[in-house]
Specification:
By secondary structure, the protein is mainly α. Helices cover about 65% and strands about 10% of the residues. It has one domain.
């Protein structure tokens, strides 16, 4: 830990200015849009009644979810405390991970940064509900059950989480492809070098 703080003192933070700006803006936007939309839904929608928004596609359906995301889970106290704990772990892990990587002067890919900001913003959006409105639960109000029967009711925080995780998966796939291409080129170069050596040895004989 001490070594990490020593490395942080030596970091050129100007190199991270663009990252700090877009990461912060995306995270704040995700949290604000989520909380504002929940407030509007809770104060304007009838609970437990579908209100068509886009016919046969999206309905507003206000519900107070004391379980997991998309209306999953139940009102079990232990499960709810576990969910709150997991949300807090994620909320604290992400900035901790970024600080650790910055101490190593790691450069962040934009796709990775945007993805992580969406995940963090979405997690904090629902964490606010789970922590400060524990008795009420998380406000969910978006339904696509008119064409996907059985799919849970969700909110903007859930959407940010899903999009962020999906983008992270894409990022890691791209990075894996890049790594495999580099390894392939390195192997091809080694094979070419070995063939050249074999040819040179034959010529010498």
């Amino acid at each position: 830990m001490r070594k990490m703080f020593e490395r942080l003192k030596q970091v050129n933070y100007r190199n991270y200015l663009a990252f700090f700006i877009y990461f912060g803006l995306i995270t704040i936007a995700a949290i604000v849009l989520d909380q504002v939309s929940k407030y509007v839904a809770a104060n304007n929608l009838p609970q437990g009644e579908a209100v068509p928004f886009i016919p046969n596609f999206i309905d507003w359906y206000l519900t107070f979810n004391k379980g997991a995301a998309w209306g999953l889970g139940d009102n079990n106290t232990f499960s709810r405390i576990l969910l709150v704990s997991i949300s807090w772990i994620v909320a604290l892990f992400i900035p901790g991970y970024l600080v650790f990587q910055i101490s190593k002067s790691t450069k962040f890919d934009v796709l990775f940064g945007v993805s992580l900001a969406l995940v963090w913003g979405g997690d904090i959006g629902n964490l606010i509900d789970r922590t400060f409105f524990f008795d009420r639960g998380v406000i969910d109000f978006i339904s696509i059950q008119s064409w996907w029967n059985g799919f849970g009711i969700f909110n903007l925080a859930d959407s940010a989480l899903v999009v962020g995780i999906f983008m992270l998966v894409i990022y890691f796939i791209i990075e894996e492809i890049k790594y495999l291409n580099v390894k392939r080129k390195e192997n091809e170069a080694k094979e070419l070098e070995e063939k050249q050596k074999e040819t040179e040895n034959k010529d010498e004989k």
